[in-house]
Amino acid sequence: MIVERETQYYKPLEVTVTTEDAGKQVRQILHKKLGISRSLLTQVKQTAFGLTVNEQRSYTTAPVQAGDIIRLRMEKESSEDILPEPMELDILFEDDYLLIINKPAGIIVHPTKGRYTGTLANGVVAYWQQKGEQFRFRPIHRLDEETSGVVAIAKTAYIHQQLSEQLQADEVEKVYRAYIYGQPLEHKATIDAPIDRDPDDPHTRTVIATGYRAVTHYEVIQSNKSGTASIVKLRLETGRTHQIRVHMRYIGCPLIGDKLYRLSDYYQVGWEETVQRQALHAEMLSFIHPMSKQRMSWYAPIPVDLLQLEEEW
């Protein structure tokens, strides 16, 4: 019998072998039931008691019988390279596997060169530390510093792997709310235009024929009376850097407050002062929970500065 130290492993993933799967190898059943990747399974089986059958260490090639219980134990991890920094977090949801946060505008998700504090990661690591919990900071996706809204963080490598695969399969739904200059020619349309680094400015992206495929679906929700501004909802089919900002500029409707992709013909001083950032909000995130297998959705309220912008126009 294996005695687990509380601080050593996360709650094990467990599979009971059915009559239908009797005689199959452990790895075949884990792939079928849990969808665990080969690389992650290799990592798990290298730990002392990472893989067991009926609480006995096992090989991935071992055959099993009906009623056998396979358990995967992942060692606890931490982000030792991220400095804990207490900060107020707007937590939308949390369980043993996920942490969903409404990120405010003005902070980046993860530390970068020269910016080691003041990030969402610093705050989350401090939050876990205060609770006496131990996880590695694994965001499922990123938001630009000036973009507010829903961010999902996986608590284990397995959850991160499962959600990364959903992202690649376009099974994760991300809906954004953007405040743009002008009115798109079409009320509802799809922008299918490749994006890559701008040859004239490596710090920005642009639509270019040799770029990577980028697809953005948008719908106009509201326009002001003068037609000088609109609110659009957008769903990303791909996830290129600055995709929404580049695509909106491409159709002649740049985001209000976007200093990097603004067009000289559009600039309303009052609006720019109100938001003081790109007027983009990650409003909704939806995916299938890797453990419950149920689709879940989370919504982030519209921030005060964007609501104020609506009142001004």
TrEMBL record:
<comment type="similarity">
    <text>Belongs to the pseudouridine synthase RluA family.</text>
</comment>
<dbReference type="InterPro" id="IPR006145">
    <property type="entry name" value="PsdUridine_synth_RsuA/RluA"/>
</dbReference>
<comment type="function">
    <text>Responsible for synthesis of pseudouridine from uracil.</text>
</comment>
<protein>
    <recommendedName>
        <fullName>Pseudouridine synthase</fullName>
        <ecNumber>5.4.99.-</ecNumber>
    </recommendedName>
</protein>
<feature type="domain" description="Pseudouridine synthase RsuA/RluA-like">
    <location>
        <begin position="97"/>
        <end position="249"/>
    </location>
</feature>
<dbReference type="InterPro" id="IPR006225">
    <property type="entry name" value="PsdUridine_synth_RluC/D"/>
</dbReference>
<keyword id="KW-0413">Isomerase</keyword>
<dbReference type="InterPro" id="IPR050188">
    <property type="entry name" value="RluA_PseudoU_synthase"/>
</dbReference>
<dbReference type="GO" id="GO:0016853">
    <property type="term" value="F:isomerase activity"/>
</dbReference>
<dbReference type="Pfam" id="PF00849">
    <property type="entry name" value="PseudoU_synth_2"/>
</dbReference>
<dbReference type="InterPro" id="IPR020103">
    <property type="entry name" value="PsdUridine_synth_cat_dom_sf"/>
</dbReference>
